[in-house]
Amino acid sequence: MPSGAVRRLTRLMRGISKTLSSCHARMSSGDQPADLLLETSSSCPPPPAITLDGDSSTTTSSFSPQPIETHNMVLPESVLGLQSRLSENLHEVWSQNKIDAGWSFGEQRDDTHKKHPCLTEFHLLTENAKSYDVILTMETLK
């Protein structure tokens, strides 16, 4: 049975994956993982209006992302051991969300017919597609 920390990390990754499933990047052989992350973030729909004390204005025009600098962070060995499994789980959750939304495997991405080349087992993905999940997992863990 997984430890409490593993269960919490798994729940966290599921939540992140569900949030990003509608924004998952197009995976083609020429895409680089960093470009895919940028493409994904730029293709996400704007957040819903935020209401503060009855004010229904949105904050999207003044939003200025300030992510934590993680390049020099070192994760403990116990967490690094989870990286592979969490990357696979992220893909599994994303895949399940896509399938639930009517998508199926296709050699080429086709939004009209809901076909996606990444709807396959993690070990069958291209290295670029795997890299996307690994980078997202590592940045989330940091």
Per-chain topology:
Elements: H1 4-20, H2 33-43, H3 77-100, E1 104-105, E2 115-116, H4 127-141
Parallel strand pairs: 1-2
Q: Could you please describe the fold and organization of this structure?
A:
The chain is globular, with a radius of gyration of 17 Å. Helix 3 crosses helix 4. Strands 1-2 form a two-stranded parallel sheet. It is 47% helix and 3% strand. With 142 residues, the protein is an all-alpha fold. About 22% of the residues have low confidence.
The strand line-up of the biggest sheet is 1-2
Strand element count: 2
Largest sheet report = 2 strands, parallel
Strand content: under 5%
Order of helices and strands: HHHEEH
Task: Tell me the distance between the termini.
Answer: 24 Å
Question: If you compute it from the alpha carbons, what radius of gyration comes out, rounded to the nearest whole angstrom?
Answer: 17 Å
Average predicted local confidence, pLDDT: 74
Helix content: 40-55%
Key attributes of the depicted protein:
142 residues; 3% strand; mainly alpha; two-stranded parallel ribbon; 2 strands
Outline of the structure:
It contains four helices and two strands; from the N terminus they run αααββα. The protein starts with a helix and ends with a helix. It is 47% helix and 3% strand.
